[in-house]
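Support reply, case 0932

Customer input (verbatim):
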Amino acid sequence: MDFEWDIDKNRKNKKRHGVDFEFASKVFIDPNLLSRIDDRVDYGETREIALAMYLGVILSVVYTWRGDRIRIISARKATKYEQRRYYEGIFG
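Our regenerated output:
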């Protein structure tokens, strides 16, 4: 799987949420990854939100597909509610 992201956005995300996009990209190997379409706003592109775990940390990662690459838009540690949804296998 190939990934891309905006360098400045990554820097801002790390400062705001403490999560680097390189680390966040690792959640996509989680076989229990849950994903849904983010249709709260018309972004002009299809965005998805993933809940997945890497090294014991559950993250919420917003991303989109650019061709065959995943473009990470934002990433943060999952809320308690999102963690519960992840463990229950329910997201949507």
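We compared this against your earlier run and they match. Two observations from our side: The first strand starts at residue 2 and ends at 4. Helices lie at 7-17, 21-25, 80-88. Please reopen the case if you see a mismatch on your end.
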